[in-house]
Amino acid sequence: MNSKRKWVGLALSAALVIGLLAGCSGNNNEGNTGNTGNTGNKGNAENSGNAEVESLDPITFSLYGADESPNWQKMQDAVGKEITKATGVTLDGEFAVGDSSQKISLIAASGEYPDLISPKGELSKLVEAGAMIDLTDLIEKHAPNIKKLFGDEMKRLRYSNEDKSIYVIPTYSAVGGGAFETDGGFKLQHRVLKELGYPKINTVQDFENAIKAYLEKHPTDENGNPNIGLTLNADDWRILISVTNPAFWSTGAPDDGEYNINIETQEVIYHYRRPEEKEYFRWLNHMYLEGLLDPNSFVQKYDQYKAKIASGRVIGLIDQVWDYAEAENALKTEGKFDYGYGRFPVTLSDEYKDGTLWPSGFMAGWGIGITVDNPDPVRAIKFLDYLASEQGQILLNWGVEGQHYNIENGKRVIPQEINDKKKNDPTGFQKESGIGFYTNFGARYGDGVLDSSGNYYTTSFPEQIIATQNEVEKETLAAYGVSTWKELFPQPEEFPVRPWGAAWNITVPADSETNVLQERMMRDITWKRIPQAILAKAGEFDSIWDKYQKDLIDAGVEKMEDGYEALVKERVSLWND
What we know:
Elements: E1 59-65, H1 78-87, E2 89-95, H2 101-110, E3 116-118, H3 123-128, H4 136-142, H5 144-150, E4 169-170, E5 186-189, H6 190-195, H7 204-217, E6 228-231, H8 239-249, E7 259-261, E8 268-270, H9 275-289, H10 302-310, E9 314-318, H11 321-333, E10 341-344, E11 367-370, H12 377-388, H13 390-398, E12 406-408, E13 411-413, H14 416-424, H15 426-433, H16 462-467, H17 471-479, H18 513-534, H19 541-555, H20 557-576
């Protein structure tokens, strides 16, 4: 899910997330671990020397993160240098390549851990291996900014009802506020929308009609290469983002990962067993039979997917912005702004309400933790506490004062030349500035939250969002009567808040039957049957779908649903305790 998300999904989005190295380093070896809870017993953070002495002596922490970050500059960007100046800390990072679940398993089994780790949904493997420090005492003694930021939400940081240790600082869910923009929705190129007179794009039929009408007029690009109606990204875990998640969003459900949950009873079903989702995948099969869906969608690699988008030949996408942003940014760098994409809340039919912005509340769950191999956990928690401070949050989101923003009449203002760089060369700007690299290294405030000076902590607020839109994007938005894409979507307040947050964020014990069944349903069955159904020959979709549903039953899907339902109810109980 929006989730930069279960393997990614969702979702950050916008923002680029971390990934990083195994092995440990650091030259300030004042102590070892912390209160390790049910983990191993390699030391105790309380014996780490004079914890109250603030040290800026250089220290390097190794860090592994389960997300890719291809533009990482090893903290030699402007923000990275300022972080090191303020804390003395440098991160030696290794980033995931593709699905990092196997990498986390190898780290857990090795007994040798990076100093800091962000494992996404694989935390249980590390906890069971004894790799993680319980951060409870470290936060209480050395992290006032983290305590302030989470406030009453601190109880949501606990691991489980049985083990109420805090193993990670949540980084995938912001505290407070709410997004002013969305990465979600179905995407169509601005040039397509303009040529067609900015048609309504509310249903899959509207989306299909626009693609078909444009391709009939322009079957090839200016070089004679065939234009592509719709291409999907199904490379490994990204199949969730581009292929399967849209099935629940477009049929009126929120992103709860691989499940659909009754908000009243908390009854759980594997979401592919919903009849309405069958009809969504039938529509994709129809797109394939009509020649509007790229037949290579399920064999192309991620780089090939991005290359097609960067060529300008792809008319429509069903994806999150963060997943294709690199390719769209390449088009912007070439000045081809009309080849960028508008975002629309598309549903299977008018009877459904797009669930992209369905709120989850503060989720906790995924985040960054300190391992038992960290040479100085007090120094590490103080580093994470700095990132959660007002000074740290402003630096991470706004950059360096006088370089990326100025203070005018008490307000932070981004100069026009910086906004132009953000619009025209987003990738180059991020590499140089570092803005966006460090957001998921620590706790963070949400969009719309004000700091002590009355300014927003983040730059994602309406005026600044508009300031970074290019003229083509503004023209498209104006044609639809809005100033931001979020305005087109059903708003968060139209939905009830889910008491479990988002189910994809729930840690499933690695050695549990539920986890084994989940892997089987997803990788062995769903990721094979869904592409078969979408690429089915005329008249064969129903038989393939029926076989898929039988495979799920035979493999124990109902037992898996019961197991996950128990986890959902446990989380609700834990958070309400």
